[in-house]
Amino acid sequence: PLGDRKNMCFSATLVAQGYGVGVVVCTGDNTEIGTINSLVNKVETKRTAVLEQIDFVSKVLACFIFVTAIITWLVAFYRIDASAIDALSIALVCAVAMIPEGLEAIVTMTYSWSVSVMAKHNAIIRVLPAVETLGSVTVICSDKTGTLTKNEMSLIGFVTSNARYKIDVDSKNRSADNFVRDDSYISMRAESAAGKSAKQVIRSGASASRGQGARGKSDFGFS
Q1: What 3-state DSSP class applies to 165?
Q2: 30: exposed, middle or buried (Cβ count in 10 Å: 0-12, 13-18, 19+)
Q3: Which range, of 74-88, 110-124, 129-143, averages the lowest pLDDT?
Q4: 10 alpha carbon, distance to own chain's centre
Q5: Active-site residue among 143, 168, 177, 183?
Q6: What is the full DSSP assignment across 59-87?
Q7: How far apart are CA 10 and CA 32, in angstroms?
Q8: Pick from 49-58, 89-98, 156-165, 167-176: least confident
Q9: Non-local CB neighbours of 38 within 8 Å, separated by 6+ positions
Q10: What's the pLDDT score for residue 66?
Q11: Secondary structure of residue 181 in the 3-state scheme
Q12: Does the pLDDT of residue 4 top 80, yes or no?
């Protein structure tokens, strides 16, 4: 599994400092970024329920207009004794007259009204069909609470060489009072690697700081 791999440096990874030597095992679309890119390109664009209903209504109207035009031509040609060209002209006029030119305007006005209603609830919609899509949503699965819901990222801890500090993320004022010293804060992972040599830490890779049995017991509230 991807999450259990050790000592791997993936494409698009940013290195803050230091250096190292590695062996390239995958390139291009075979990398993890390439895999994600290929999966994104394979996503099919799905039409919303409203657009599918509009397509269905359009097909029904097209069939009805076509049948009506044929009946109109037959009546004009056989009952009125009009020429074939005149009967065709009458049928075409009737067919064009039955086309609902205002259907698109009505749909657009309905979407616009929905957008204005959602805007009053602080929900701004850029694409009009998204209104109907949001109305059909029953479950929303998301991660990064705060980043998505509030559009902000918060610093929860500050660690120095000799102290650890908790930060009040709910405070609206930037002041030194937001820092509370707590040397036991965010120490579970650091203590799990204590006593290991540098060689053991390097050999263990990025998972060296997790320790055995320490996962799921931190102050973060998630595992």
Answers
A1: strand
A2: exposed
A3: 129-143
A4: 23
A5: 143
A6: HHHHHHHHHHHHHHHHHHHHTS---HHHH
A7: 7
A8: 167-176
A9: 29
A10: 92
A11: strand
A12: no
Residue 46 CA neighbour count, 13 Å, CB half: 6
Cα distance between residue 197 and residue 117, in whole Å: 62
Higher pLDDT, 106 or 192: 106
User: Which two tokens mark 61?
Assistant: 């109207």
Closest CA to 49 of 132, 127, 108, 115: 132
Burial classification of residue 178, based on how many CB atoms lie within 10 Å of its CB (0-12 exposed, 13-18 middle, 19 or more buried): middle
183 is catalytic: no
In sequence order, the 6+-apart residues with CB closer than 8 A to the CB of 169 are 154, 155, 156
Residue owning tokens 């509230």? 221
Contact of 65 with 73, CB cutoff 8 Å: no
Tokens of 208: 């060296």
Q: Tens of pLDDT along 142-176?
A: 666 666 666 666 777 878 878 888 887 777 777 77
Q: What is the reported pTM?
A: 0.42
Model pLDDT, residue 214: 40
Burial of 160 per CB tally in 10 Å (0-12, 13-18, 19+): exposed
Listed in sequence order, the DSSP H helices in the chain are: 32-41, 49-78, 84-97, 103-119, 129-135, 188-192, 198-204
- Contact status, residue 198 vs residue 205, Cβ threshold 8 Å: no
